[in-house]
Amino acid sequence: MGLWPDAQQAGVSRETFDLALAGLRLDPSVLDHTRKQAEFERTIRDYLAAMVSGSQVEKGRALAARWSEALAVIERRFGVDRNILVALWGLESGYGAGIGGKDVISSLASLAFIGFRDGLFRDELIDALVILEQGHVARADMKGSWAGAMGQAQFMPSSFLKYATPYDGGARKDIWANPRDVLSSIANFLKGNGWRAGLPWGFEVVLPQSFDYGVSQAAFIEWKRRGLSRADGGPLPASGEALLFFPAGWRGPAFLITENFFVIKNYNTSDSYALSVGVLADRIGGASGLRAAWPSVIDGLDRAKLLETQKLLRALGLYDDKLDGRLGPALRAAARGFQAGHGLVPDGFPTPELLAKLRAAH
């Protein structure tokens, strides 16, 4: 079925449709990008060093001060920590400096043409046409990333239609040039995905010497009973639960992460990304850097070996998520389960030693 009938059904006029698609060609550079995603390829130490740099922190603090009045209004309106909003703004588009120079319609059309991700981008293309029809942005100004993420908030068109919010309550939603709309829209996205007001995303913790690594999730009061303390010396929350997270294994920094950490992952599913947002937000708010050092060598697995690990854990009945070679929560949980029964510290971080034991178990 052609694109026009579906676009017409979505409310797109023939004039908007023809203007948007006139002269489009397949963009080979977009297709090249489908083969790599940086936050899944670099070590988490290197990713954080790039995303939470001194200049990134300094600029974030300056912009948080510049837009403090608007941020106060947005924080009250949506219940989302202002520093999280500024951090997401920074990571997504360099605080608006790097929205991407790609023509969004061309990018989405190219991805739709090759059927990337099972038709997802055909639907996003139609949503982008709806945005043009509604007059939120001019055709020539609809710029974004190679994957069609738009403006300073880097929203996909479907997310724009669902979450983009004008700060002043007007009809036009401008995430390309209006920082107030950008921050309001990010806040609405997080709230819409379950952000809990007053709950931190997480924080770095210090473990006691006799810590029982067999426990991975518990209420804060239980973590306190087990001797965990915040690395910054602050108190643990009085209520709520958190997951113990070792992003580079038990020899590196440890964190307690809450459900708000996983809300951030609705923006980008990478653990490295979500942790960078949280740490950058803390730094923008005046905190110092992480207390614990990263291991000099992070003995992780490349994508091919992570895929093998997933397959071997699935064969043992410990893993039932996607076979994609990505290190996410499901693989960490499965690794922790195997480690606990095979003489390894159950930190959820797949290593060559873990893979060797998995191979031996088969």
Structural write-up:
- The model has no long low-confidence stretch (mean pLDDT 94).
- This protein starts with a helix and ends with a helix.
- Strand 6 (241-245) and strand 7 (254-257) form a beta hairpin.
- The chain contains 18 helices and 7 strands.
- The longest helix is centred in the middle third of the chain and has 15 residues, at 120-134.
- The chain folds into 3 domains: 3-36 and 100-150, Helicase, Ruva Protein, domain 3; 42-99 and 179-298, Lysozyme; 303-361, Muramoyl-pentapeptide Carboxypeptidase, domain 1 (Orthogonal Bundle), CATH 1.10.101.
- It has helices at 3-9, 14-21, 28-33, 38-41, 44-51, 54-66, 68-78, 82-93, 104-113, 120-134, 157-163, 179-192, 220-225, 259-264, 271-284, 303-315, 329-340, 352-361, and strands at residues 102-103, 143-144, 202-206, 217-219, 229-230, 241-245, 254-257.
- It has 362 residues and is an alpha+beta fold.
- Helix 6 (54-66) packs across helix 8 (82-93), helix 7 runs parallel beside helix 12 (179-192) and helix 9 runs antiparallel to helix 10 (120-134).
- A 5-stranded antiparallel β-sheet has the order 4-6-7-3-5. A two-stranded antiparallel ribbon has the order 1-2.
